[in-house]
Amino acid sequence: MAPNNMVEGSTPKTLTILGCGTLGSAILLGLLASFTEDESRKSSSRRNDPEDNGMLNGATHASLDDDEDMERPARIIACVKTPESAQRLRRQLAGVRCSLSVKIVQGDNARAVQAADTVLLGCQPQDLVSCLGDPTVNKALRGKLLISILAGVTIPQIEGVLNQSGTSNIPAKVNGAGLPNGSHRPTSIIRAMPNTASFVRASTTVITACSNASSSDIRLVQWLFTSIGTVNQITAAQFDVCTALCGSTPAFFALFIDSLLDGAVALGLKRSEAQIMAVETMKGAAMLMLNGEQPESVKEKVATPGGSTIQGLLELERKALRGIVADALIKCTASASILGSKQA
After folding, report:
1. CA 184: distance to chain centroid?
2. Which residues are CB-neighbours of 119 under 8 A, at least 6 positions away?
3. Residue 172: beta bridge partners?
4. Residue 107 DSSP one-character state
5. DSSP characters for 156-168?
6. Which tens digit of pLDDT belongs to each residue from 62-100?
7. Model's pTM, two decimal places?
8. Residue 231 is inside which H or E element, if any?
9. What's the pLDDT at 276?
10. Within its chain, how far is the Cα of 193 from the centroid?
11. Of the residues 4, 80, 246, 296, which has the fewest C-beta atoms closer than 10 A?
12. Nearest to 332 by CA among 209, 204, 152
């Protein structure tokens, strides 16, 4: 019997992760956890209601198996550079129970890419050329989906590296059958930017695709990053501002919370207790806005006439917090736009 995520009689699909550092490992563990939860949910549903078709009543999350036409990986190859990284990943995977097969490979990217149907590029941005410039890796990527999570590295830059070996991985023209004028299909490249909340499977990930990426490629990438949070598809022109808005602002929020804690400690609260209260309060405000409340509406509901909240808000406005935060985002976006040129 075929596993839940593959078509009966088909060859199991393989996902290779090139670089299992902190973010690559978070994606791997999130995918395994989501897959395990999905299997458990469907198993429980079948026990409770054989007619339920694998969906629990009132479910609010997307099943990893919702898209029946898409073949998902049944095997994962996790590539690392050092024995220490391999040992760390083994410790992280210890105790994980999942029907997905995971193999750790050290120092053999070429063979891992050859075995893959989809490749997740998670190396350091400065290692882009050494990783993809290998002619064996370059050739093995032909006709496959390449997902990049490299900060500041654009799709044209990746295409440039793939073309440098002279194997013309990205063809200029295609023939009437949709194939390049040559003997191979092009590599489909999709760029993704998860954020640090990937570690708790609450990332806001943005993705953008090259022109030859198929709808099934995009669905597969959306499925993959849904395992660690939410996904938004954007244009390439929007990527820098979304990198700042989704990737950098967790640090902004952390700074704001830390500032509140300083004030709370000055007023006599223990920092650990203040942190729990402040973070839970921020979480509640975020949930209100996720449910459709506008920021201005939330502010007005709290700031009642003659109350203490309006005094605090006026002080923030006097100190120009609104302009400071907006300018910080603008500067962050400008920095993101030149980050890629530093990696070239």
Report:
1. 29
2. 15, 16, 17, 18, 113, 141, 144, 145, 146, 147
3. none
4. S
5. HHHHHHHHHTSS-
6. 444 555 556 788 899 999 999 999 999 999 998 888 878
7. 0.81
8. strand 229-233
9. 98
10. 5
11. 296
12. 152
